[in-house]
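To whoever picks this up:

The nightly regression suite flagged 1-acyl-sn-glycerol-3-phosphate acyltransferase as changed. Nothing in the input moved, so I suspect the structure step. Input below, exactly as stored in the fixture:
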Amino acid sequence: MIIGSKREQVIENIQQAAGVGAFHSKVEVDDPVLNEEQRQVLIRNYLQKRTTWGFRANNRMARYAANTASKLINRNTEIIGLEHVKELTGGAILTSNHFNPLDNTVLRLFSMKMGKEGLYIVSNEENFAMSGWIGYLMNYADTVPVGSSQRYMVNQFEDILMKLLKRKKYVLFYPEQEMWFNYRKPRPLKRGAYYYAAKFNVPVISCFIEIQDLEKMDTAEFHKVRYILHILPAIFPEPVKSVRENSLIMCEQDYRQKKAAYEMIYGKPLDYGFEVEDIAGWIPACMGQSDILPKYHKAEEKGGMAT
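Regenerated output under the current build:
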């Protein structure tokens, strides 16, 4: 499903950012832009309303909608590697590659299969300023904002996260930081998710989503795609190491696992030289379908709904 406009400009931004190693750069062109005062107001409003009855009612409706949509969107999605987490019973931090506004639905599906009623998602604060149905889900579907305020992050954010993990919830972090549309390659990871895993002594469930092109078209420029979620070995903090040491080790291990998964899935070593096939389903204007399909066609649609 193609969400957002100006995809050619976004892909050009991805190419430029990858070329200079700016792997955490924002590449979307229509995201909300907030000044510091607006950010503070947004966080303050979030904290004030999250304990109200109105928020709880909207949360229940948004969670139901998100879970239902996740099942529909991912009718063709496969999950591989559940054996790596079958012994986990408590709270955990999930990490995954980030390439689509709806890629969290894949992780929601996994969370439901693990017996969780919802998946909590850590998201940049500007996403809470979005409008429409995406904005509604951003504000109410079990999301927690990452704020620019150090005071908020050290106090309220950590308190919210600690309570969720103690209640045995799953919390999704995107350690690549920004979304890169349909980008297949795993990017270097930021350390935040692993810092919190180490601090609160919970495992990291390491995930990598494979994107397969389908033959059917979604738009004139993009094939439909399907997903395969690869659950990689869980990563645990070591009690004898400090929070900082654990966060560095866990971050490095997660990147190694995602890199190895990419190389196994796509059958080539990971490098960041830009290629057309880095963008799943894409047919550049200068190329026709006959040029693309022999190289990129990976899967046949098997009924149901492709993403």
